[in-house]
Each structure stands twice: as structure tokens, then as C-alpha cells.
Amino acid sequence: MMLRSLLAQNYRSLRSIRMDLGRVNLFVGENGAGKSNLYRSLQLVQAAARGTLAYEIAAEGGMASALWSGRRRNEKNFRIKLEVEVIDEERAVTFRYRVEAGLRPPIDAAGFAFEPQIKEEELSIETGSRPVTMMKRGGPGIMVRGAQGRMEEYPEQAMTSETAIALLGDAGHYPEMGAFRRMIDGWRFFHGFRTDRDSALRRPCLAVTSPLLDQDGGNMAAVFATLVHTRGDTVDLDRAVADAFGGARLVVPEPGEYAEFGLVFPDFPQRVFQPRELSDGQIRFLGIAAALMSYRQPPLIALNEPEASLHPDMLNPLAEMVAQAARSSQIWLVTHSEQLASAIEDRCGTRAKRVIRNDGATWIDGMRLTGEIAEDDA
């Protein structure tokens, strides 16, 4: 599965931006340029597929806060618009999904004031020469392509803040919508791992086979135990830990009821340092390692400023892990660090997209309106 393009309009600092995407998508720029809004817009697409878009927007202050923050022209129906194109390479199917959300009309009593109102939604697929609409929604009414290949009205209306893709993807009668929803649900977003003494990263966890890291890192010990005791292959992980921590070694005991881990450093070869004793940077690096090197890789891994709290010596090992993960997952990485960006460019053969402000709006330096970036400008 490959995310081929993203369109985001009227979301915070994103006035209107469309970009083509590749295997490794690296975004670098200064504070306030809007890098995190790009990351967040992609996360909101997943929220729409999961049926949690209203919650996510309400949690960040509601629609009034989420809408384009700059000057507005006299536009009717001012809305946030998100659109993605996703390719299922195995089945040679292209999915295009669009969702538009706006404010509740003053005279409309339905819905709550701070949650988004879904205005339009559409899913189409393309397997040949032209796209075929599978679902189209305007307001609460939903039209869907039925078993006979004709568009028909879905018998249940959607609530004003409810996405049709989540409603129909759960229905069990529309395999294309279910397939698209499962693909998007498989994306993983990792940002702001807690590293304080109560962090989930520092605690033992139930010993349950864990092929993927939870987004809060709470099953990190089980991810390491799965790699060590189930896969039995930790060559890449051991190399990353040794490179980042001056020759240190990860220790993962055979799990009992709980999975645990520790580090052994060359200066203290007889002692295992427990997670509670590690620095914020050390524990954060291990969290990123678990995200990038888990037993099963998600189709897309998004990292937001993974360099936070990391010692500069850890950036090259981090770039190496990104390059390893990119062999099986699509990567979306946002960073302030020029050093990290350069190291990833060297290892992945990609060029960083430089995020800037253009007339108050987030933009990619050198990008055309079509979403392409000229080779000379990349």
C-alpha cells in the first residue's frame, strides 16, 4: 500500500496544499512553518476512516480553532477539505477518498457547536481507465454502489458529525470501503513519547506477543520480547542500540507474566540498567527503535520530531533505522534537525521537502501547484 498524494485545504496554516508523495517523505523547516499541521492533516484522514474525526477536532479546540487561521476571502461554505490517493499495489487498485467538514449552520439545531459537521464525502476506486464512485455523501444522505453495480440510497442517514466511510466500512456489505478503511487504520503515528518517570515506556507490560508498537509506546517491552524470543533475530536492533549508546547491549529476559528490558553499558558490564534509570533521550530512542523495527511493519510510519531529547550522537543511528524501515514501510518524518535530515537524505536517496511560510500559509519550497517538485528545486 502506498499513499501517493495528499490534499489539505483550510486546516490551520494549510490554506491549500497538494503534494505528491514517495516512499520516504521528509519534511524539514523552522518553528511555526506548519510542519506539524501537515502531519496532523494526515492523522485526521485516519481519524475519518476510524470514525473519530469529530472527537479529534473537538480535542484540539473545535472547528473554529481548526479552520484556516489566516485572512479569508468572501467564500461561501468555508470548509476543511482533506483528500488522499492510496494505491493497493498488490491488487492494482487506486483509492481516492475526500472528506469536507465545516461549521454547524446557526439555524441548525443538530450537532454540537464545537464539533465538525461533515458536509461532503466521497470514495472512488480505479482499476482500469476511469474511476468508479463507490460512495458519495452530501449532508446526512449517503449514496452507495450496491451489489448490482448501481448507485442506491443507503437506508440509514449519517449523523452530522459521523463519517460515512466509518459507518459503511463497518457494515460488512461493501468490501471496497472495508478494504480502504483497513489500509488507513494500519497507519501508525508516533509523536511526543512521554519520558517522565511515569511514562509507559519505562514500565513493564503484560507479556503478550506484540508485532507492532502501540502509539503511546505502552507495549514497548513486549515488542522487544517478541523480537528476541519469537523472531530470534535482533541484529539490526542490536546494532542500532550499540551505535546510539556507545556499545551498550539491550537485555530482554524470557517473559513471565510481564515483559521487561534493560541496558548493559560497556563501563558496567555486570549491571543491567533498568528503564527507570535511563535518560529521557535514551528511553525515547528505544521507543523510536521499537516503532521502526517491530516484528511486523505498518504500511505507513509517521514520526513527528523524533530527534527531541536525543543526543546528536544518536541521530545517525536514527537515520539508519529509518532507512531500514523504509524497505517495508512508507515513511513520513517531520524534523527541525538539519543533521538528521541530511543523514536520512544520504541513506534513503531522497530529498527533504523544505516547509516554509508563503503569504502566511504553509508551503513546500519549490513545489508547483500540481504538487510536483522540480528535480532542480528538491
TrEMBL record:
Annotated Endonuclease GajA/Old nuclease/RecF-like AAA domain residues: 1-47
CDD domains from the UniProt entry: ABC_ATPase
Superkingdom of the source species: Bacteria
Domain ATPase AAA-type core: 271-340
Organism lineage: Bacteria, Pseudomonadati, Pseudomonadota, Alphaproteobacteria, Hyphomicrobiales
Name by which UniProt lists this protein: AAA family ATPase
Pfam families: AAA_15 (PF13175), AAA_21 (PF13304)
